[in-house]
Specification:
By secondary structure, this protein is of the alpha/beta class. The protein has nine helices and 14 strands. Helices cover 26% and strands 27% of the residues. The strands form three sheets. Strands 3, 4, 5, 6, 7, 13 and 14 form a seven-stranded mixed beta sheet that branches. A five-stranded parallel beta sheet has the order 10-9-8-11-12.
Length: 306
């Protein structure tokens, strides 16, 4: 099979397309034919090991010292079940699925083997594989943090970084939960965030939301503390009494299979829609990583593997 291998930590050019043996599923695994995947910010952080010195050492211990032990990166997929292990009962060959695995990786390839009981769910039937691959990463993270904050109808929620993969999902999911949503983004993305259901959009190049009169029950940093620290330094002055400010970097989310299935249902019904900035071929993975590294993508960058 064709796969993209991460030869060492570094810039996008450390990624190389190779021929590899097609994996064989173990008893509890399904082999998935990958039709589309996504280049997430997490993929780029792992590839480049762009972390503080202390966290970089911890990451090397966990992931591999000089290069990732799991040489094929990629956490997200949309595709179909190709074969199954002897103990698998949930899936059959031919099932169309989408999923997310932040520990096994492997989706920058034509095939990958994942456990049957992992984060896999039926692919939304009315979406393409590229659209389906744009749902799990941002959707699962956004849903986790909105639930952690107990967002409910009538609350005022501000999403900082509303145009990224997590942000576009958070705006739509907060609106679905009944919140009144304000999105913060750049000038170029104001109309996009508005179209996703934000009642108000703040252009951070023009206005500082912390200086406004509005008070929020939740301020959700969908960007990450490294990039948002200066902008959110005074976020607490914009909170309503009892309000909270949380970041996508807070803790290790426990992601649920039922939540992935829910996201698929919401996407199929039109309650949420995947946002895709660009679609690349697997051969162009270096260009895709270079683009994501720039830090200005709208929603998701997708890789078409077929």
């Amino acid at each position: 099979m064709r796969a993209v291998v991460c030869t060492k930590y570094g810039p996008p050019e450390v990624l190389r397309l190779e021929e590899m043996a097609t994996p064989v599923p173990r008893n509890n695994e399904v082999r998935l034919r990958v039709l589309a995947t996504a280049v997430t910010s997490s993929d780029c952080y792992i590839r480049g090991l762009r972390l503080s010195p202390a966290y970089r050492i911890m990451a090397r211990i966990a992931l591999g010292w000089n290069a990732p032990k799991r040489r094929v990166l990629g956490m997200v997929l949309s595709g179909e079940v190709d074969s199954i292990g002897s103990d698998v009962r949930t899936f059959e060959p031919g099932y169309r699925v989408f999923g997310f695995n932040r520990r096994r990786f492997g989706t920058y390839a034509q095939y990958v083997c994942w456990p049957e009981d992992g984060l896999l769910a039926p692919r939304p039937v009315n979406l393409t594989d590229e659209e389906s691959a744009a749902i799990p990463y941002g959707g699962l993270l956004a849903l986790h943090f909105l639930r952690k904050a107990s967002v409910r109808a009538g609350q005022k929620v501000l999403v900082f970084g509303a145009s990224g993969a997590v942000g576009t999902s958070a705006v739509q999911l907060a609106r679905y939960l009944g919140a009144v949503v304000t999105g913060v983004c750049s000038t170029a993305n104001v109309s996009l965030v508005k179209s996703l259901g934000a009642t108000k959009v703040v252009d951070y190049a023009v206005e500082d939301f912390a200086e406004g009169a509005e008070r929020y029950d939740l301020i959700f940093d969908a960007v990450g503390k490294e990039r948002s620290a200066s902008a959110l330094r005074r976020c607490r002055q914009a909170l309503a009494p009892g309000g909270a400010c949380i970041s996508v970097d807070d803790g290790t989310p426990k992601l649920q299979r039922d939540d992935l299935a829910l996201l698929g249902e919401l996407a199929a019904s039109g309650e949420i829609r995947p946002v895709i900035d660009r679609i690349y071929a697997l051969d162009d993975i270096v260009d895709a990583h270079s683009y994501v590294d720039m830090g200005h993508k709208r929603g998701n960058v997708i890789i078409s593997v077929a």
